[in-house]
Amino acid sequence: MEEILHYENITFKREGREILKGINWHINKGENWALLGLNGSGKSTLLGMIPAYNFPTSGEMRVFGHKFGNYAWTKIRDRVGFVSSTLNNFLSTLNSEKLEDVVISGKFNSIGIYQEVTEKDRIKAEKIIEDFGITYIKDKYFATLSQGEQRRTLLARAFMNEPDLLILDEPCSGLDVKSREYLLSVLEKNSKNENAIPFIYVTHQIEEVIPAITHITLLKDGKVFAKGRKKDILTDKILSEMFEMPIKIVWENERPWLIVK
Ligand SMILES: Nc1ncnc2c1ncn2[C@@H]1O[C@H](COP(=O)(O)OP(=O)(O)OP(=O)(O)O)[C@@H](O)[C@H]1O
């Protein structure tokens, strides 16, 4: 099995507080994981270690089999695609970026384009833009797009670099049902490709656990509360304990729907 990500006994301490408390989590190729947890449980801190925004206080992290601390980490960063509302908000403040350029900038993992764009890059971007259903707005400025269009653009941007791992941090937050379902359908479609890109999906909405997601990690107070195959984890019992309230899960069209009892 090809290893994608490995956290072993990871801790993270700040200001005398233990924010992550001995995290063990292993991801292999062929798996797509959702990471769920209450606000402040440590999800962003944990995933922020992959591009080295945060460093573990102790423990071992390997990405694509390379150990953090023993490897030129920019090479790892270049192999990981990100979609987050922070990136979305930042790009929205720039008024000079056109949709097509935002997608192309994914190739360089940069905000803005500072390197030569080849004809091949443009053709590739056009194909991705088409796959994501945003050709009709490709010449528009990113800042003028709706939130749904902006998220689709960011997902397209993440695909431009053909990453080996996608980190999707609440990609559907703020989207209406139609835009959300469109984005999820693109992701579902990608997972059926021969060259599907593995992803980690952070969300507060259990309904967003699409069939392509195979595994779940639940994080609570900086610890792994439960992890494993999604049908073993998304149960009434585990979720009621996790959220400390009575919860019922109904599976419909291979997706879980949450009811508060
Ligand atoms: N560099 C830091 N210094 C101090 N505290 C930090 C630092 N980074 C994270 N924290 C704290 O760690 C805790 C976990 O934050 P984190 O953003 O990882 O949670 P989260 O699960 O992603 O939350 P949310 O669902 O609200 O996005 C929070 O209490 C946060 O304030």
From TrEMBL:
Q: Which UniProt keywords apply?
A: ATP-binding, Nucleotide-binding, Transport
SMART domains the record matches: AAA (SM00382)
- State any GO CC term: ATP-binding cassette (ABC) transporter complex
Task: Identify the residues that the record assigns to the ABC transporter domain, covering every copy.
Answer: 5-246
Pfam families (UniProt xref): ABC_tran
User: At the top level of its lineage, which domain of life is listed?
Assistant: Bacteria
InterPro entries found in the cross-reference section: AAA+_ATPase, ABC_transporter-like_ATP-bd, ECF_ABC_transporter_ATP-bd, P-loop_NTPase
| Chain ranges passing through the membrane | none
Q: Which GO terms describe its molecular function?
A: ATP binding; ATP hydrolysis activity; ATPase-coupled transmembrane transporter activity
Q: What is this protein called?
A: ABC transporter
What organism does the UniProt record list as the source? Leptotrichia shahii
